[in-house]
Design a protein that fits this description.
N-(1-d-carboxylethyl)-l-norvaline Dehydrogenase, domain 2; 2 domains; four-stranded mixed sheet; 12 strands; globular; EC 1.1.1.169; 2-dehydropantoate 2-reductase; NADP binding; pantothenate biosynthesis; ApbA
Length: about 325
């Protein structure tokens, strides 16, 4: 297949490399000049399960793709949520009537942006358990195994995704069809909607927050708001299962000493966060469904205040 990886950071580099190795025609599109320059000059480098590999994959800055002659069969989205609309505008000349668009972004409601550019029948929502990191511009660190759950939003459902699933599985990306991807997305969003914002505001790793006397009460209040919105969107969310998963993040012996991605974006790298597409999305949908979401609203406001205080860009 002819594949565009839109957002070629850590996860985009993983998917681009694995699809390239499976003999697909892949191009990378990103907005980080140094990352782009290094890949153009030296190829995409990766420590891939302990093996050093280099792949020569074409990469373009998103501002220059309007002139690129490439008609995609599949677009895989890995941008930051707030960059999604701009990316879709930039690549629209490479998206045809039959191009499938697979969204693997964190957060909720991205289909509302994507459907401005492609029909609902071409949109595939996914949730991935793959992980990846960047050791520097042009150099990825890829360890472990993972999987992808995905669902087409059109009436044809699974039939419309068979070719995409086959392509992903040929690249050993372990894709499978889900009858209710929103449940997986909301479950993951509950983890992000608690650990990300709270650890960022409290300047804490997950274990430090989890060991406070009030952690469970705060988490349960936030999850209850996510669950109320999920119910309105016919997403089956098992609250006890979600709470168990969140509380497992407190474990110092596993991932408890980790600082979530929002903390890394804002506190370490002074970047704007994706709070509007996690807790902020619950606030917007709460207004739509006439559901009160005070905890998500307050946490969203606190994170924005922190962004402004720190002068995040």
């Amino acid at each position: 297949m002819k594949v565009i990886i839109a957002g070629a950071g850590a996860m985009g580099s993983r998917f681009g490399l694995m699809l390239h190795q499976a003999k697909n025609e892949v191009i990378l599109v990103d907005g980080w000049p140094e990352h782009i320059d290094n890949i153009k000059k030296d190829g995409l480098k990766a420590n891939f399960n302990g093996e050093e590999v280099v792949a020569q994959i074409p990469i373009y800055h998103q501002n220059e793709v309007a002139s690129v002659d490439f008609s995609a069969d599949l677009v895989i989205l890995f941008t930051k949520a707030m960059q999604l609309d701009a990316m879709m505008k930039e690549i629209k000349n490479m998206v045809g009537t039959n191009t499938k668009v697979l969204c693997l972004l964190n957060g909720i409601g991205h289909e509302d942006v994507i459907k401005k550019y492609v029909p609902l029948s071409n949109i595939i929502l996914g949730n991935t358990m793959w992980t990846a990191g960047l050791e520097g511009p042009g150099k990825a660190k890829l360890f472990g195994n993972g999987s992808i759950d995905l669902q087409n939003l059109g009436e044809d459902g699974r039939d419309a995704t068979e070719e995409v699933i086959a392509c992903l599985n040929k690249a050993n990306l372990n894709a499978k069809y889900s009858g209710n991807i929103l449940s997986s997305i909301y479950k993951k969003a509950c983890v992000n909607g608690t650990m990300n914002g709270l650890c960022t505001i409290l300047d804490s790793n997950m274990a430090g927050f989890g060991e406070t006397d009030v952690a469970d009460a705060i988490v349960e209040s936030i999850v209850s708001e996510f669950a109320a919105i999920a119910k309105m969107e016919k997403a089956d969310l098992n609250i006890e299962e979600v709470l168990t998963q969140i509380k497992s993040c407190y474990n110092r012996e596993t991932i408890g000493l980790h600082h979530p991605s929002m903390y890394q974006d804002l506190i370490i790298n002074n970047r704007l966060t994706e709070i509007d597409y996690i807790n902020g999305a619950i606030v917007r949908k709460g207004k739509q469904y006439n559901i009160e979401t005070p905890y998500c609203s307050f946490l969203t406001q606190l994170v924005h205040a922190k962004e402004q205080i720190l002068g995040a860009k």
